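Colleagues,

For the teaching module next term, I've prepared a clean inverse folding example: a structure given as tokens, and then the sequence designed for it. I'd like students to try predicting residues themselves before seeing the answer, so please don't circulate the second half yet.
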């Protein structure tokens, strides 16, 4: 069920959000940014260029790092995040042209680095379903005229791979059918073993009765053979782990510290785990999806509060920063709906970016994005695909990349099916030989029992 948002849901504290709106307007004007850029966070500090140190403020938006001097000659430096090639924990940046930028925050250096590195590592993503569906409804021929991405050829390769998989699968299924028949014969042989066991017990009982009769009428005593205990069989219970999705986020603690973390969303719970490599003891937190009472897109961009059913302020909320808020909101909303059959409240505060949620298409599309585990991996030479100017080109590239990835997966599956088919053919031959030996052994055993019965009757 898709939830569309026609306009922002205004919260009562618009006065608090007004400062964010004002800062956004000033920054867009000073640095020539588009209306889609919002200030996520800002830090006061020193910008170093050669032997020159300049005091000022560094502003972080979804796609830019912007520095503005605070005194003397006004200096404005705008760095597009997608142009950066490297970044270290001293907050030294290096772009594709070899230019180096250094920034030294006055306070909260670790927090500043964590947030900058997160934005550098994972590009911001937002999906408009209306535009997305318009793009996907265009014919393949028109797409190829608009872009250089040969989607039609990729689709033909995928179709061919699927046909090959069908042939491989048919062969595999025929061998499976043969093995099922062999298994049925094996089960019949098992039942025969049971009957033979009963015959053996009957022979033992008859022999015991004969011994009893002989003891009554003869002086020679014969000891009966000891009884054998039936072995006890135990069955193993196989439990399949629940499906989950993992997202790289920034976890905002109650002291406003920002730490890198992994947010794992299961079918019925959410787990947050710190991912720092410098600490021995890492923070973790877990809460049930049914304990959520609302999602709040904060006035500060990329920030979300998850309200929980708990009296304590610290335990009653979880605060995160993410470039994939739409995906997280969509996943939490859908899973909550499946568990409770009720809609989870989603609030967009003033200055927040409104988006669609409640549609599985959003999940499928965002599985191609950087912060989410299971996504298509982009090589370093393909980074341009994430930075194309139009969303349509980016979507076309993702379609092509995803189609090619499916083709590779199917070909890999065909190879594995071929190997499994060869192994299954060998297993079938061995099983047939084993069944033949068992039938021969049972025949010999039955002849043996017949001889014993004849001996008793003498």
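(Answer key — instructors only)
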């Amino acid at each position: 069920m898709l939830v569309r948002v026609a306009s922002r849901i205004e919260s009562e504290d618009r006065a608090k959000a007004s400062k964010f709106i004002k800062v956004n307007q000033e920054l867009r004007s000073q640095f020539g940014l588009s209306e889609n850029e919002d200030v996520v966070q800002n830090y006061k500090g020193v910008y170093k260029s050669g032997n020159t140190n300049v005091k000022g403020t560094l502003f972080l938006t979804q796609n830019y790092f912007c520095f503005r001097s605070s005194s003397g000659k006004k200096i404005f430096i705008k760095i597009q995040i997608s142009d950066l090639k490297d970044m270290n924990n001293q907050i030294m940046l290096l772009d594709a042209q070899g230019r180096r930028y250094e920034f030294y925050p006055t306070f909260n250096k670790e927090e500043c680095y964590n947030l900058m590195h997160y934005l550098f590592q994972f590009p911001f993503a937002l999906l408009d379903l209306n535009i997305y569906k318009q793009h996907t409804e265009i014919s393949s021929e028109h797409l190829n005229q608009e872009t250089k991405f040969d989607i039609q050829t990729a689709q033909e390769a995928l179709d061919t791979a699927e046909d090959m998989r069908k042939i491989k699968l048919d062969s595999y299924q025929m061998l499976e059918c043969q093995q099922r028949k062999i298994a049925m014969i094996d089960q019949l042989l098992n039942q025969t073993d049971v009957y033979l066991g009963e015959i053996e017990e009957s022979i033992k009982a008859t022999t015991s009765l004969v011994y009893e009769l002989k003891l009554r009428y003869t002086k020679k005593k014969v000891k009966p053979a000891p009884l054998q205990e039936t072995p006890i069989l135990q069955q193993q219970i196989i439990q399949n782990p629940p499906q989950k999705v993992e997202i790289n986020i920034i976890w905002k603690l109650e002291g406003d510290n920002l730490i890198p973390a992994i947010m794992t969303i299961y079918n019925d719970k959410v787990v947050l785990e710190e991912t720092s490599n410098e600490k021995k003891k890492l923070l973790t937190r877990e809460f049930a999806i049914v304990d959520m009472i609302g999602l709040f897109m904060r006035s500060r961009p990329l920030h979300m509060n998850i309200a929980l059913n708990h009296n304590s302020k610290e335990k009653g909320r979880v605060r995160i920063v993410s470039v994939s808020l739409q995906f997280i909101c969509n996943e939490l909303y859908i899973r909550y709906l499946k568990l409770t059959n009720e809609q989870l409240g989603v609030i967009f505060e003033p200055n927040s970016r409104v988006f669609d949620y409640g549609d599985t298409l959003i999940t499928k599309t965002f599985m191609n994005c950087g912060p989410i585990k299971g996504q298509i991996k982009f090589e370093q030479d393909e980074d341009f695909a994430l930075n194309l100017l139009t969303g349509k080109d980016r979507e076309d590239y993702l379609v092509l990349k995803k189609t090619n990835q499916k083709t590779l997966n199917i070909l890999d599956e065909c190879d594995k099916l071929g190997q499994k088919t060869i192994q299954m053919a060998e297993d079938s031959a061995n099983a047939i030989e084993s069944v033949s030996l068992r039938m021969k052994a049972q025949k010999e055993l039955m002849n043996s029992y017949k001889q014993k019965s004849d001996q008793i009757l003498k």
